[in-house]
Every structure is written in C-alpha cells, then in structure tokens.
C-alpha cells in the first residue's frame, strides 16, 4: 500500500472515527478516535475535505447574484454550463471524445433516458438481461421500463445468478444465457463491476455476444 501512487489521495478525504460510526464491537476493540476502515464507497463515498468550501462558495454566489449565478461573468462557477467543468475529464477517463460525453442527472434518471432510447421491445424480443444482485434502484428502473411497455417485469427481466455454492458469475454462463435467450433478448444491461461482489465483467465479450443475437448491450459504470 505504501508504494501505491494513489495512496496519498486518502488524505483528501474525511474518514469517520470509530467512536462516531461502526459496530459496537469495533469500537470496543479499537480506540474511539481511530479512523474507520471504510469499504463502502460503492454505496456512499467519503466526503472530500474540499466539499464544504465548494458548497459554501456556491451558496455565496447564490446570495450575491441570485438567478444571475447561472450566467454572470462575475460568477466563479456559472451553473448554466457547470457540466462542462467535468466533461473533458470524463472523456479522458472513458477514452471518448468530449462531444460523446454527457454529464447530467442522477444514475436512475440517466438509465431511464437510455432505456427509453434503446429498449424497444417488439414481438418476442422483449427480454432485459441483468445481474441478480444489480444495484436496487437500477433493478427498479428496469422493472418500470418493462411496465412502461405494458410488459410483466417478472417475464421481461431475466436475472443472472452465480452457480450454487459460488459467489460470482462465470463468464461462460453469461455468454451461454445470451445465446439461450437469442431472439427473445432485447437489451443486456450489466455493471462493468458488479456493485455487490466487485466482480469485473468481460465487457468486450458480452457486447459481442449481445450484438451477435441482435440485442443492444449497455454497461453501467457507476460502480466501476
């Protein structure tokens, strides 16, 4: 860990103390002022130390400029184009062009927008393939999409589960399920990294398999 070039980033975050959070047993075993070992970033990450100042800066801008905070030249961070501040960074991270990247809304809202564009069930091609333990709000969104098309979510959503006694999905089982569903499959929507287990999926192989049966492949990178 000491040799990790990213190790210093830990100092940029506020790590809760054991005396403020965590199980009672942990508090008894460790000092109350000791920082927690925090491994829940898949649910809610730690607060950056710069957050409070950034929020207060926008509150000051709101107080001083009102609605003009959206546009005014004197605004330190004009809200109208706020997504542009991370567009280039996001494009570099994704290996995409900046014009191909949109930064907007919540994860669930974005999933709905994407599904409205790409989930077009027709005839027997109605199935959405997802993980058995997908992030709960992702699962709810896909259920809603099925209902939007007057389909039964129990029939339209097919969930992938590990084999009995195993914790993660096998790549060959994912590809086999895609082949099995074949002409019934409309959309494959998986996380790049499974949020519950941390499993990394072979996105290239999954996308190729989905396209091979005429389906759309989508990947949720929010937990990657």
Polypeptide structure, described:
The chain has 224 residues and is an alpha/beta fold. The protein folds into 3 domains: 7-48, no CATH class; 51-100, no CATH class; 107-220, Type I PLP-dependent aspartate aminotransferase-like (Major domain) (Aspartate Aminotransferase, domain 2), CATH 3.40.640. The chain is 37% helix and 11% strand. It has helices at 24-29, 51-65, 84-94, 107-118, 136-148, 153-156, 171-181, 203-212, and strands at residues 13-14, 47-48, 127-131, 157-160, 185-191, 216-220. The strands form 2 sheets. The protein has a 4-stranded parallel β-sheet with strand order 4-3-5-6, sandwiched between helices. Strands 1-2 form a two-stranded antiparallel sheet. It is globular and about 55 Å long.
Number of helices, counting only DSSP H or I runs of 4 residues or more:
8
Number of strands: 6
* Relative helix content: 25-40%
Largest sheet: 4 strands, parallel
Concise account of the structure shown:
This protein has 224 residues and is an alpha/beta fold. 37% of the residues lie in helices and 11% in strands.
């Amino acid at each position: 860990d000491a040799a990790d070039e990213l190790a210093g980033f830990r100092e940029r975050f506020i790590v809760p103390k054991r005396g403020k959070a965590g199980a009672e047993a942990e508090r008894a075993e460790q000092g109350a002022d000791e920082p927690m070992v925090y491994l829940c970033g898949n649910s809610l990450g730690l607060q950056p130390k710069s957050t409070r100042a950034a929020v207060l800066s926008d509150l000051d801008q709101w107080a001083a400029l009102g609605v003009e905070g959206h546009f005014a030249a004197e605004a330190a961070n004009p809200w109208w184009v706020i997504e542009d501040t991370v567009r280039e960074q996001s494009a570099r991270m994704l290996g995409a062009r900046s014009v191909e990247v949109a930064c907007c809304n919540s994860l669930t809202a974005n999933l709905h927008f994407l599904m409205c564009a790409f989930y077009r069930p027709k005839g027997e091609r109605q199935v959405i393939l997802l993980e058995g333990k997908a992030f709960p709000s992702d699962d709810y969104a896909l259920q809603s999409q099925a209902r939007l098309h007057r389909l039964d979510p129990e029939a339209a959503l097919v969930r992938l589960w590990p084999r009995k006694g195993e914790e993660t999905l096998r790549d060959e089982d994912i590809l086999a399920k895609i082949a099995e569903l074949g002409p019934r499959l409309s959309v494959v929507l998986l996380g790049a990294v499974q949020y519950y287990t941390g499993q990394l999926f072979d996105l290239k192989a999954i996308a190729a398999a989905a396209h091979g049966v005429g389906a759309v492949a989508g990947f949720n990178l929010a937990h990657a």
